[in-house]
Amino acid sequence: MDLYANVIGEGKPLLILHGFLGMGDNWKTLAKRYADEMNYQVHLIDQRNHGRSPHCDEFNYDLLAADLKSYMDKNNMSSADLIGHSMGGKTVMTFSAHFPTYVNKMIVVDIAPKYYAPHHQQILEGLTAVDEACFESRKDADDLLSKYIKIKSIRQFLLKNLYRKNKKEYGLRVNLDSLKANINEIGKALKANETFEGQTLFINGKKSDYITAEDNNLIKNHFPNSKIQPIQNAGHWVHAEQQDEFYNVTSAFLA
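The chain above was modelled as a monomer; its predicted structure follows.
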């Protein structure tokens, strides 16, 4: 699959994988800092069924990892540093286990290699309502989505998927049909034999419950050369909620 990416800067490659229902451009501000201050060429990659990348019926982490390898091969990258948030974290974990020589250092943001039960149903219902409705402005879309999601910051994040198809019609960049059909794939655990020996940093938001103390042994089993770094006053979107601290922690690790 030919993935879309926004490439920022020149230098050694840093590939960033967004979370479920996100897109690479969610990371644009941080990407500019990695490029300007650390001399990275940052690749903000849209995973399949997200952003500007192709839509398809098939969706699982083996495919997402294979997509990433194809992207690196196409762009003549023999190895790179990787950052993955949430679903993107599962992608880079799987990728590192399948293609370890392609990975220099890896950062996994607020996700563990364990199983997570489906928990995005209300969000998907709200986005489906938006996708099926006719409205004249983004405010109308936000008003509709607010019936399903009360937290404004989450609505703003989701509505970044909204784009104008023509003067009278909006559309969503995510492939809702495929994502709903494959929702059980999103939370799947890494297989027991999927491991990576390279340097790995797990970052968790202290206000988030995606990574708990009980996950430490499981993380070490899959990633023996890893450490876990909590960031205070941050939830699941730790890179957005505490951007400066996130940059400081990640840049120190990557350096």
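The chain has two domains: 5-115+190-254, 121-181.
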